[in-house]
Automatic annotation (TrEMBL), chain A:
Residues 487-985 form the BLOC-2 complex member HPS3 C-terminal domain. PANTHER family: BLOC-2 COMPLEX MEMBER HPS3 (PTHR28633:SF1), HERMANSKY-PUDLAK SYNDROME 3 PROTEIN (PTHR28633). It comes from Xenopus tropicalis (Western clawed frog). GO terms for biological process: pigmentation. Residues 447-468 are annotated as: Disordered. Residues 2-468 form the BLOC-2 complex member HPS3 N-terminal domain. Pfam families: HPS3_C, HPS3_N. This is HPS3, biogenesis of lysosomal organelles complex 2 subunit 1.
From TrEMBL, chain B:
Keywords: Cell membrane, Cytoplasmic vesicle, GTP-binding, Hydrolase, Lipoprotein, Membrane, Nucleotide-binding, Phosphoprotein, Prenylation, Protein transport, Transport. Its cofactor is Mg(2+). GO terms for biological process: protein transport; Rab protein signal transduction; retrograde transport, endosome to Golgi. It catalyses: GTP + H2O = GDP + phosphate + H(+). GO terms for cellular component: cytosol; late endosome; lysosome; phagocytic vesicle; phagocytic vesicle membrane; plasma membrane. InterPro entries: P-loop_NTPase (IPR027417), Rab9 (IPR041824), Small_GTP-bd (IPR005225), Small_GTPase (IPR001806). It comes from Xenopus tropicalis (Western clawed frog). Its EC number is 3.6.5.2. This is small monomeric GTPase.
C-alpha cells in the first residue's frame, strides 16, 4: 500500500473536560462526553476555532453506550443502575443549561389524553423506553432519525415522530418493528435508511427491511428472490448457535462470505413480527486473528458502519419538523474491521467488496467518511483513501466511462495519505470535518516515561508527555479538524508534480486520488451554493485537466482517457492545444493527445480556433497522421484556417475527390473561382457524391437541432444545384441525414430567395429526386404526402411566382414508376385550355402522381377539397380521383356536364372489364336524355351516342342490344348499328 | 466498579397539592413560589451533597399527585432508593391517603422487602394555623406503619425541609450500608470497563 505524507489533519483543540472521559459521541455541532462514573453527560460545542462547554446533565444511571442523532437532536443511552439496563432518550437537552433545572420524564408512546400543559419547550425531557430484554447496542438512522436497538434475541426499531400539542411539536418514538433473531448476539449495530448491520465478535450480517406496503421500495433491489419473509428454520441453525456452550474446546468456524440470497445459509434466523420483508445482503464470518496472541479482545471485529451516499442534485428539507427526508440514498457502503484488515463493501445495485485495508499495526477503531477511512492503532492515526465516490458516481451516471465522462476506477489501489503519531489512542469518532480522538496513556507506561523523559515539557504537539512535577491528567480528548478539501487537493496535486518528470505511477495515482476526493466533496448533499462550492467545482475541473494532461502524454491502453477528462475540464480546444504544445518536451505528440484532437475535431463543435491554432493543428496532423488532414480541414473548428497555407498541405496529399472538394473550398475562400471549378470538374458526379458521403460537413454543420449549410453549399446552390440536390439525396439514401434535416438544410439554404413560399423549390427538387431513387415505403409515403400537398398549394395559387424546377414532369415520368402516364381523356380535357403554368408543371406532376401506382388516393382526398372545379384542369383532378375510387357514374355525370368532348375517351380508357354495363345502363340513357332535352348544339352528344352504340353493338347480343335501345329514337339512326351487330354475330 | 452507584433516587409521593414540588424546590434551590403549576407526569432535580466526606448525587423525583396522572408516574417508581410520603397537615384526606400511596409505591416499585424499605413521612404546610391533622395522629400512623421517621415541614418557611431530605439519605445509607461502597465523583476511573485494554510498552 502506498504511503504519502500529505496533511489531511489540520488544527487540533482539546475538549475541556474536567474529568477523564469514559464514553463520547458527537454530531451536528456538539461533542457528548460521559464522566463521573458514567452518570453525567457534558456537552461541548465545536465550531470553527473553538470548543467550549455548552451544558451538562445527569443521567439516570451509568451510561454504557450512547449515540447522538442529528435529525431528532436527541441523545440515546443504554444505562445501567442496580444491575438493570435501561434505554433512554434525552431530548431538549440543550435546555439543561437554562435556569430550569427540573427534568421531566415520561414513557415512550405519548399519551394524548393527558394535557401536557406543564411541559414547556425550555425543559429537558427524558423518554424512558422499556424493553422486554436488556438492550445491548444502539444505532440511529442519520437519514430518518429512527433508532435501532439490539437485544440478545431481537432487534427493535423505534420510529422517530413528532406530535403536535398546543402549537408545539413534541418528539416521541413508535415501536415500528421487531425482528426476532437467532444464531447471533449483536454486540454492535448500524442502521441507515432501512439497512441494518449487526455484528458479533466474528460475524457480520447486513440486511434491509422492506415494508411490504410500498412496492416501489422493493424494486430497488435487483434480485427479487432474495426478498423473503425470513422464518426461523431449524435446518439453518446448524453452525455456531447450536454448539454446546460449556464446551472446553475453542471451535473456530470456517471463514465465509455470502452475498444476497446465499446469506440464507449463514445460520442466523431473522423473522419480523409483522409482514415486513427482510432482504439479506451480506454475511461474513471470520476466524479469530491470533497474530497478537490469544486475547479475545484482539481478535474480534470492530467498527461496523453503514455509510450512505446520496443522489446529487436533490434538494432536501432542512426543516426539522418534517420527518420525511428528501435525501435519496444512491448507494450504501458498509465497513467493518478485523484487527489487521478492514473491509469496505458497496451495497448498490449489487453487493461487492470495494477495498481491503491492510493495516501495518493492530487497529483499535475506525471511522469511514465519504472521503476517507480514519483508523487508529495504539499510537497512530492513519488516513486511508476510499473508493466511495468512484463507486457512487457509477451507480448514478450511466455515461461515466464513455468518451463523454470518466472517473478513476473503483479497483484502483487505496493508499495511506498520512500516519499521524498520537500516544495511547483509545477511541475515535467523526462528524462534519472534525475527528474526536481520545487518548489515554497507560499508568505503567506513564511511570516508565517519568523515569526516562521526566524533563520533557508538554508541547502543543499531539504527543503528550507527562512530567514528574505537574499533575496533568494522562488522558486527553482532542478535536482534530480535517483539512478543507480544496487545500488538501492542492497539496496532493503539488505532491504529484514532484513525480511528474519521472512519469511514475505515483504521480497519476495521486492525481486520481485528488480527483476522487473532490468528487466526493461535490456529492455531499449538504453542500450549498457558496464560495466553497465554486472553489470545489473549479478544483474538479482543474483536476480533470491535470488528468487529461497526464493521459494525453500516454501511449498506453489508457491514453484514450485524455478525451473524457479534457471534456470534463471545460477547457476550450485552443486552451488544451496550447497546454499540450507548451509542455511537450519531446518531438511528436502522445497518442492520448492525438486521440483527443481527432475526436474533438470530428464531433460538432461551436468553438472556432484562431488562425494560428488552426495552423498548429494542421501541422500536427501533417506531421503524424496525414491521412486525417482532409477530415481535420472539414471540421467547423478550423473554419478560420488560412486557405493559402491549407492549400500547401493539401498539394502534398494523394489526390481524391475529397481532397479536390476541399481544395475547391479553399480556392473559393480565396475567390479563385476558376481553380474551384476545375477541381470539381476533375471528378465524376459519382466520385463527388462519395466524397460528400465521406464528409457531409463539407455541405452542412449541425448545431443542436439546427442544420447550417456551409459556404460551399451556398456556392453549389448557385453554380451546380443539380449536384447539390443529388448529394443530399445520396446523404439521405445512406442514412447520413434525415428527411427533416434535409428540409432544414434547404430551408436555411434558400431562406433569402423564397420569401413568400415556405417550401423552397430546391427542397421540392430534392423530394422529386428522392422519389426517383426509390426510397423505402415509409419514406415514400412521407415524400408523396409532402409533394402532393406542395403541388396542391401551388395549384390553389394560380398567380404564384414561377420557378424552373430541376426536373420536368416528363423527366420524372421517365425516371421512376411513381409518376404514371396521363390518360388521353385528361389530355383532351386540358387541351382546350390555355395551360396554367406549364413552366412549373405542378398540374401535370400531380396528375401523373395520381395516375401512378404508388399514390394512395384516399390519403389525397383531404387536399382535393381545396381544389376548385372551375377549370377543366382542376376538374380533371377531381374526376381522376373519383375514377381511382371506381366512382365512374359520378365521373360520367361531371364530364357530360362540363366537358362532353372527353366522355368517349374517358369511357373507352376507364370503363373496363367487369363494369361495361355502365355503357348501356348509364352512358346510353344519359346521352339520350341530353339529346332529347337540348334543342340545338347537340352534335357532341350525338357523336358520343354513335360511339356508344358502336361499343354496345360489339359487346351485346342482339336481344340485349334491342332491349337497351330507347323506344323513341329514329329507326334510321339506330338501324346501322343493329345491322353491324347482326353481321358480327354471323361471322362468329 | 460496584454495581451500586452514588446516585440516590428519592421519590416524593402524596396527594395533589400537598406541596411536593414546593418541598423539592425549597430543598434544591431554596426558593418558594406560591404560583406553582400542577406537576404533570414526573420530573426530577439533582442535588449534590456531601455525606460523611462522600459526595452523593441525590436525584429527587417529583410526581403528579392527581389520580388522572397515575399512568404517567407509576412506571418511574422502580429503582427508587427512598420514598417520601407527603401529606398536608391542613388536609385530613391527604393524611388518610398515605396508606394508599404506600401501597401504590410498593406495588409499582416492585419492592422485594417492603418492611425494610426506607420511607420517610412528611407533614407539610405547618405554617398554616388551621390544622386538621395533629402531630400525635401523624406520629401514631408512622409508628404503626413500619416505624418510619416523621417530619413536620413547611416549604414556605423552609422549616425542617433540609433535615427531612438529609434523613432520607441517611436512612438509605444506613439500611443498605452502602456508604463504604460509594464512589467519589472526583476520582478518575481509568479502567473503562467496556473497552479492551491493551498491554503497555
Amino acid at each position: 500500500m502506498r504511503l504519502y505524507n500529505c496533511h489531511p489533519f489540520g488544527s487540533q483543540r482539546i475538549v475541556p473536560t474536567m474529568q477523564a472521559p469514559d464514553l463520547f459521541c458527537c454530531g451536528r455541532d456538539s461533542v457528548f462526553v460521559t464522566s463521573a462514573g458514567g452518570c453525567k453527560v457534558e456537552v461541548f460545542t465545536v465550531c470553527q476555532d473553538l470548543c467550549q462547554r455548552l451544558c451538562s446533565f445527569s443521567t439516570l444511571g451509568k451510561v454504557l453506550h450512547m449515540a447522538y442523532n442529528d435529525v431528532g437532536d436527541y441523545l440515546v443511552t443504554i444505562e445501567e443502575k442496580n444491575n438493570i439496563s435501561s434505554l433512554r432518550a434525552y431530548v431538549n437537552w440543550r435546555c439543561a443549561s437554562n435556569e430550569n433545572p427540573r427534568v421531566s420524564v415520561r414513557m415512550v408512546g405519548f399519551k394524548m389524553k393527558s394535557p401536557h400543559i406543564g411541559s414547556s419547550k425550555d425543559q429537558m425531557e427524558i423518554i424512558e423506553m422499556p424493553l422486554s430484554e436488556p438492550p445491548l447496542c444502539i444505532a440511529c438512522c442519520p437519514l430518518q432519525g429512527d433508532l435501532l436497538v439490539g437485544c440478545k434475541s431481537k432487534l427493535i426499531i423505534f420510529h422517530l415522530k413528532y406530535i403536535s400539542i398546543q402549537d408545539s411539536l413534541i418528539l416521541d418514538f413508535d415501536c415500528a418493528l421487531i425482528l426476532h433473531i437467532t444464531g447471533i448476539c449483536p454486540v454492535q449495530a448500524s442502521f441507515c435508511a432501512g439497512y441494518i448491520g449487526i455484528m458479533s465478535d466474528l460475524e457480520v450480517l447486513v440486511m434491509k427491511v422492506v415494508s411490504t406496503l410500498s412496492e416501489t421500495q422493493l424494486t430497488t433491489h435487483q434480485d427479487m428472490s432474495e426478498v423473503e419473509a425470513f422464518q426461523e428454520k431449524d435446518n439453518l441453525s446448524t453452525s455456531a448457535s447450536q454448539l454446546p456452550e460449556s464446551c472446553d474446546f475453542v471451535i473456530c468456524q470456517r471463514p465465509m462470505e455470502l452475498i444476497s440470497e446465499e446469506c440464507k445459509m449463514c445460520g442466523i434466523g431473522v423473522s419480523p413480527e409483522d409482514c415486513t420483508q427482510v432482504c439479506h445482503l451480506l454475511y461474513r464470518r471470520f476466524a479469530p486473528d491470533f497474530t497478537e496472541g490469544i486475547h479475545v479482545e484482539n481478535t474480534r471485529l470492530h467498527s461496523l458502519q453503514l455509510l450512505p451516499m446520496y443522489k446529487t442534485g436533490i434538494s432536501f428539507a432542512t426543516d426539522p419538523k418534517s420527518a420525511t427526508p428528501q435525501k435519496e440514498v444512491l448507494v450504501m457502503f458498509c465497513f467493518f474491521s478485523m484487527p489487521h484488515t478492514g473491509f469496505l463493501y458497496s451495497i448498490g445495485s449489487t453487493v461487492k467488496l470495494l477495498s481491503l485495508y491492510q493495516y501495518p499495526e493492530t487497529s483499535q477503531q475506525a471511522v469511514l467518511t465519504p472521503q476517507f477511512l480514519h483508523v487508529i492503532t495504539r499510537n497512530n492515526l492513519q488516513c486511508f483513501t476510499v473508493r466511495c465516490s468512484a463507486a457512487a458516481v457509477r451507480e448514478e451516471d450511466p455515461y461515466i466511462d464513455t468518451t463523454m465522462k470518466s472517473c478513476p476506477p473503483v479497483s484502483m489501489d487505496v493508499c495511506t495519505l498520512r500516519m499521524q503519531l498520537f500516544i495511547g489512542l483509545k477511541a475515535i469518532a467523526h462528524f462534519k470535518n472534525y475527528l474526536i480522538i481520545l487518548t489515554k496513556t497507560n499508568m505503567e507506561a506513564t511511570e516508565e516515561r517519568r523515569v526516562s523523559t521526566s524533563q520533557r515539557q508538554r508541547s502543543k504537539k499531539p504527543v503528550k508527555n507527562k512530567t514528574a512535577q505537574d499533575a496533568e491528567p494522562n488522558w486527553n480528548l482532542y478535536v482534530v479538524s480535517t483539512t478543507p478539501t480544496v487545500q488538501l487537493y492542492k497539496e496532493m496535486v503539488e505532491y504529484s508534480k514532484r513525480y511528474e518528470t519521472a512519469k511514475t505511477q505515483g504521480s497519476i495515482h495521486l492525481l486520481n486520488e485528488a480527483h476522487l476526493l473532490v468528487r466526493a466533496a461535490l456529492m455531499d448533499p449538504n453542500l450549498e451554493e457558496s464560495l466553497a462550492k465554486t472553489e470545489l467545482v473549479a478544483a474538479f475541473k482543474e483536476s480533470c485537466a491535470h488528468l487529461g494532461d497526464w493521459f494525453s502524454r500516454l501511449g498506453t491502453k489508457h491514453s484514450h482517457l485524455a478525451l473524457p477528462y479534457y471534456k470534463m475540464s471545460c477547457l476550450s480546444i485552443s486552451d488544451i492545444i496550447n497546454r499540450v504544445v507548451g509542455m511537450e518536451m519531446l518531438p511528436g505528440y502522445g497518442r492520448g493527445f492525438l486521440f483527443y484532437l481527432k475526436h474533438v475535431l470530428f464531433e460538432e463543435q461551436d468553438e472556432q480556433l484562431s488562425e494560428a491554432v488552426a495552423v498548429k493543428v494542421i501541422e500536427i496532423f501533417n506531421a503524424v497522421d496525414k491521412a486525417q488532414l482532409p477530415h481535420v480541414l472539414c471540421s467547423p473548428c478550423l473554419a478560420h484556417v488560412c486557405p493559402t497555407k491549407a492549400m500547401v498541405y493539401l498539394q502534398n496529399l494523394q489526390p481524391s475527390a475529397l481532397v479536390s472538394l476541399i481544395k475547391a473550398n479553399m480556392a473559393r475562400r480565396m475567390n479563385d473561382l476558376d481553380t474551384c471549378k476545375n477541381e470539381i470538374q476533375h471528378h465524376s458526379e459519382m466520385m463527388l457524391l462519395c466524397a460528400f458521403m465521406d464528409e457531409p460537413r463539407l455541405l452542412m454543420n449541425h448545431k443542436g437541432k439546427e442544420v447550417i449549410p456551409t459556404a460551399l453549399a451556398f456556392y453549389f446552390k448557385d453554380t451546380v444545384p443539380g449536384l447539390l440536390v443529388a448529394s443530399l439525396v445520396a446523404l439521405h439514401e445512406n442514412n447520413k441525414i434525415s428527411l427533416t434535416e434535409a428540409e432544414l438544410f434547404f430551408q436555411a439554404l434558400c431562406e433569402k430567395m423564397d420569401d413568400e413560399d415556405n417550401v423552397p423549390q430546391m427542397l421540392v427538387d430534392f423530394w422529386e429526386a428522392r422519389l426517383s431513387a426509390y426510397p423505402p415505403e415509409s419514406v415514400l409515403q412521407d415524400i408523396l404526402f409532402k409533394l402532393t400537398s406542395y403541388y396542391v398549394w401551388r395549384i390553389c395559387r394560380p398567380h404564384h411566382l414561377c420557378v424552373k424546377p430541376l426536373r420536368s414532369p416528363e423527366d420524372l415520368r421517365n425516371s421512376c414508376s411513381h409518376f404514371g402516364l396521363i390518360s388521353p381523356w385528361i389530355s383532351k380535357m386540358v387541351s382546350k385550355e390555355s395551360a396554367l403554368c406549364n413552366h412549373c408543371g405542378e398540374f401535370l406532376k400531380l396528375q401523373s402522381l395520381l395516375s401512378g401506382p404508388s399514390m394512395d388516393v384516399k390519403l389525397f382526398l383531404p387536399f382535393l377539397k381545396l381544389i376548385p372545379e372551375d377549370s377543366n384542369s382542376s376538374l380533371s383532378i377531381h374526376i381522376l380521383c373519383a375514377t381511382r375510387l371506381m366512382q365512374y357514374e359520378k365521373s360520367i355525370d361531371k364530364l357530360l356536364d362540363c366537358c362532353p368532348e372527353a366522355i368517349i375517351a374517358y369511357a373507352k380508357h376507364e370503363v373496363k372489364e367487369g363494369s361495361q354495363t355502365i355503357w348501356w345502363n348509364k352512358l346510353l340513357p344519359e346521352l339520350c336524355n341530353r339529346i332529347r332535352s337540348s334543342q340545338s348544339n347537340n352534335e357532341v352528344f350525338i357523336s358520343s351516342l354513335k360511339d356508344t352504340l358502336e361499343i354496345m353493338a360489339m359487346e351485346l347480343d342482339t336481344k340485349d342490344f334491342l332491349n337497351a335501345l330507347p323506344d323513341d329514337g329514329t329507326a334510321a339512326f339506330f338501324l346501322p348499328y343493329l345491322l353491324n351487330q347482326s353481321k358480327k354475330k354471323l361471322t362468329f | 466498579m460496584s454495581a451500586k452507584s452514588s446516585l440516590l433516587k428519592i421519590i416524593l409521593l402524596g396527594d395533589g397539592g400537598v406541596g411536593k414540588s414546593s418541598l423539592m424546590n425549597r430543598y434544591v434551590t431554596n426558593k418558594f413560589d406560591t404560583q406553582l403549576f400542577h406537576t404533570i407526569g414526573v420530573e426530577f432535580l439533582n442535588k449534590e451533597l456531601e455525606v460523611d466526606g462522600h459526595l452523593v448525587t441525590m436525584q429527587i423525583w417529583d410526581t403528579a399527585g392527581q389520580e388522572r396522572f397515575r399512568s404517567l408516574r407509576t412506571p418511574f417508581y422502580r429503582g427508587s432508593d427512598c420514598c417520601l410520603l407527603t401529606f398536608s397537615v391542613d388536609d385530613s384526606q391527604s393524611f388518610q391517603n398515605l396508606t394508599n400511596w404506600k401501597k401504590e409505591f410498593i406495588y409499582y416499585a416492585d419492592v422485594k422487602d417492603p418492611d425494610s424499605f426506607p420511607f420517610v413521612i412528611l407533614g407539610n404546610k405547618i405554617d398554616i394555623t388551621d390544622r386538621q391533622v395533629s402531630v400525635e395522629e401523624a406520629q401514631a400512623w408512622c409508628r404503626d406503619n413500619g416505624n418510619n421517621p416523621y417530619f413536620e415541614t413547611s416549604a414556605k418557611d423552609a422549616t425542617n425541609v433540609a433535615a427531612a431530605f438529609e434523613e432520607a439519605v441517611r436512612r438509605v445509607l444506613a439500611i443498605e450500608d452502602r456508604s463504604d461502597q460509594l464512589i467519589n465523583t472526583d476520582t478518575v476511573n481509568l479502567h473503562r470497563k467496556p473497552k479492551p485494554t491493551t498491554a503497555c510498552c
